[in-house]
Amino acid sequence: MRIRREKLAELQENGNDPFREVKFDVTKHSAEIHQNFDALDGTDVSVAGRMMTKRIMGKASFIDVLDRDGRIQVYVRKDQLGDDVYSEFKKYDIGDIVGVSGHVFKTQKGEISVKATEIKLLSKSLQVLPEKFHGLRDTELRYRQRYVDLIVNPEVRDVFLKRTAIIKSIRNFLDGRSYIEVETPVLQSFPGGGTARPFKSHHNALDMGLFMRIALELPLKRLIIGGMERVYEIGRCFRNEGISIKHNPEFTMLELYQAYTDYYGMMELVESMIKKAAQDVCGTLIIDYCGTVLDLSKPFEKLTMVDAVKKYAGVDFDALTTLEEARKVAEEHHIKIEKWHTKGNILNSFFDEYAEEHLIQPTFLMDHPIEISHLTKKKPDKPDYTERFELYIAGRELANAYSELNDPLDQRARFEHQEATKQAGDDEISMIDEDFITSLEYGMPPTGGLGMGLERLIMLLTNSASIRDVLLFPTMKPIN
Predict the structure, then answer these.
(1) In what order do the strands lie in the sheet with 301-304?
(2) Mean pLDDT by 10 residues, the chain (480 residues)
(3) Which of these, 65, 71, 73, lies nearest to 48 by C-alpha position?
């Protein structure tokens, strides 16, 4: 690092400060040259990027330049550049940003390259890149210094290019079904639409408390009430909770709402959308995820929560008629319950403990208890349960969807029940949003709604084990 700074000082003293360079006209990138060599052979091009290797062989040298698409080899000759320029070039360090003009050719060994007629130092690297054989492998350091991770680990760059492609595929799919993309507030008076602990803030001018949104749901439903019929938003949500391989306090949510459909309509939509994204990005519907082969080509399985618990825990909640019976069964199976838990809460705890991990192939887990589904329509023939599903793949929840509750009186009663639960000790319950109830009183059509944490889908389609692997800048505790 000291030597690099001395080189920079010498350049600046000689009037060649690389940080004064403001522009370099790039005409081609590495991938285009490799893919179209026959058409470009012998033509003049200009490329720019980071010098990743340098092999000095007397009066000729080879360097590898890394640009946005990958690497291109550059052949540098002293007799082509002149003594002074070649002498300066030999002082360049690995990691420096260079601009190269020259013509495309193929070496005697058959490698597509650019023969330089001009080379310029565009920016000086004062830090030393990790050496090429071991690279940057420390996971914690990779997440903290993603910029270095992207430079030295090309597979990381591929993950984030796929992330962009997945989101683009989803947008194209929804746009093709006449959905309207909208934006709703990140700062909210009421952190509604989900069950999670919010981040709190304060607006000084209005002297009022605000919350970072935990979901996109309630503002989007207001737009359905306003007559927009099909809306979606892809935006950041924030939950003041723990960090794990599946959770980050800041994440990207897709939520969409469609008037005049129900949760079966949402099943068709999300299955079609995921299959299209997989085909677009992976080129196949047979996905290898962390050693497990997942078949997205078949129709997704449907399974009720009661049947899932019966299948994997051997407990039939339809046969339990009282809360006391449910509590007794929970004790026998060492399921932890809270004092405010009802039969529905206990069923959900059984599912989490016994069934969730078994839902490997794509499965719609249906008909959740009303106690954990505060914004969902009841099943007409089974009012203790709701028209809700969660999509599970590889033992993880990918999506959550409802036939949306549009009865304002029922919605108020559900909110009031939540409030009582909050008073009993559940600090993740939201406050009552009176304006949302007012909006429902104007009339909301029958509506299907869907929420999906996009990182979960991106993890699946990029074979990434941790959510941090698909977030460019995951939340990290500062180093003291």
Answers:
(1) 180-181, 230-238, 250-259, 447-453, 396-403, 388-393, 363-366, 301-304
(2) 96 94 94 98 98 94 97 97 96 97 96 97 95 67 92 94 98 98 94 88 95 95 98 97 92 98 98 98 97 97 98 96 94 91 95 97 97 93 96 97 96 85 62 90 98 97 96 90
(3) 65
Residue in the structure block whose two tokens are 């003594």:
83
Domain 152-300+362-470 has what CATH class?
Answer: alpha beta
Distance, CA of 69 to CA of 92 (rounded, Å): 22
User: CA-based Rg of the chain, rounded to a whole angstrom?
Assistant: 29
Report field, pTM of the whole predicted structure over 0.70: yes
Backbone angles phi, psi at 224, to 5 degrees: -60, -45
- CA dist 119 and 77 (Å) reads 11
First to last CA, the chain: 23
Rounded CA-CA distance 275/284 in Å is: 9
Cα–Cα nearest to 129, from 105, 165, 153, 112? 153
What one-letter code names the amino acid at 5? R
Q: Where in the chain is the domain with CATH 3.30.930.10?
A: 152-300+362-470
| Backbone angle region of 291, left / alpha / beta, with phi > 0 → left and psi within -120 to 50 → alpha | left
- Residue extent(s) of CATH 2.40.50.140 domains in the chain: 2-129
User: Taking the domain 2-129, which CATH number applies?
Assistant: 2.40.50.140
